Amino acid sequence: MPEIECFWAEELPNLSENLDNEGHPLWNIGNRGPACKASDLPVGAVRKILLGPDTENNPPQWKVGPDGLCLAVETPAGLWIMDHQSSQGGFWYRNALDPNIKPGDKVNLTVLPSIRIHANKEYHAILQNGKLIEV
Hints:
five-stranded antiparallel sheet; four-stranded mixed sheet
């Protein structure tokens, strides 16, 4: 079963030099490659999804995790929001992200139960100790 190491991606400050030619913000992935827009992040990149400060106005199917962040990871089948309601109605459990993490650092996240994506490509995996492991 292929394993994919997951790493932290962080949005650069929204300054003109940190935007691409179309005005999209760029994301820093440390030593894993050049800064890129969100749609070009490589598989394994974990990033936060921006929610409003007033959680009552956020979509009800989204929540924040134990670290106060709503996180997503790029999978081979596309973006998966781990702090999003599942198709069965429940939520995934995950541990907190290290508050001192830097772009490109391995994330030490475990998410339970497994994930199944039915998008561009069928994908079933677990995220354990910072690795996406296809099952």
